[in-house]
Amino acid sequence: RKEYVDLYLNYMFHESVREPFEDFMQGFVRGCPSKQWKMFLPEELQVVLQGHNKYDWHLLEKNTRYWYYSHLDQTIRDFWAVFHKLREKKKKNFLAFVSGSDHVPGYGMGCFQLQIVDPKETNPDEVYPSANTCNYSLNLPR
User: One GO biological process from the UniProt record (predicted)?
Assistant: First the structure.
């Protein structure tokens, strides 16, 4: 039985995925030559590729820039009051909404800069918030 289980596990985790993995690896190495990746420890490479999964939501608030808003505007104060009451999963969902990922980029939360923009709509009650993930921007109607 042990030999059967060992052979089965070897097939499932190695042999059955060998060809697709080799195709993936060939394409990955073509776009990202492996010489450059060897300078990273596995944990560092994971952060480079996936980003951080440690969050400091108050630092995010502190680093946020405002366009046509002030951090003292009632809309902004209400936004942060509600945001800080959200569960961790909802905060990560918000991060994914404005950045395209629920992980913090590799350079860390201290350098991550959210922008909150007043889209200057004539009738803000008829407009939903939207995001521009390229520049981490939240369009938040008043």
Answer: protein polyubiquitination
Query: From residue 79, how far is each of 11, 41, 43, 82 by CA, in Å?
Result: 52, 39, 35, 5
CATH 3.30.2410.10 range(s) for the chain read 57-139
Q: How far apart, in whole angstroms, are the C-alpha atoms of residue 33 and residue 25?
A: 10
Is 134 assigned a catalytic role?
Answer: yes
Euclidean distance between CA atoms 20 and 17, whole angstroms: 6
Q: What is the pTM of this model?
A: 0.66
- Which of 37, 63, 134, 139 does the annotation list as catalytic? 134
Question: For domain 57-139, is the CATH number 3.30.2410.10?
Answer: yes
